[in-house]
Amino acid sequence: AAALLAIFLGCFGVHKFYLGYSTQGFTMLALSLVGGLFTFGLAAGVVWVISLIEGVIYLMKSQSEFERTYVYSRREWF
């Protein structure tokens, strides 16, 4: 579920909220909304590309490896 959220709603940081990383989720949300206004959408595009990469990385991991990395070890980025 986190991978699909990252791919489709990642520019709003929804996948970070889903995984329990509220600070990172708010960071991505603020960069997309506020930064997107000042850069005419460029910041939102960059955040979406980062989220897309994270979604692909999530899909490439096995379930046990994903849980070990992002749930138990609490790795926040990539």
Give a description of the structure.
The longest helix has 19 residues, at 42-60. The chain is 77% helix and 0% strand. It contains 5 helices and no strands. The two termini are 16 Å apart. It is mainly α and 78 residues long. The chain has helices at residues 2-9, 14-19, 22-38, 42-60, 63-72.
Note the beta-strand portion.
Answer: under 5%
**Average pLDDT across residues?**
91
Number of helices: 5
Characterize the largest beta sheet: strand count, sense, and whether it forms a barrel: none
Write down the overall geometry.
elongated
Helix content: over 70%
Number of strands: 0
The rounded Rg comes to 12 Å
Detail the poorly predicted runs.
none
What order do the SSEs take from the amino end to the carboxyl end, as H and E? HHHHH
Quick rundown:
The protein has 78 residues and is mainly α. It has helices at residues 2-9, 14-19, 22-38, 42-60, 63-72.
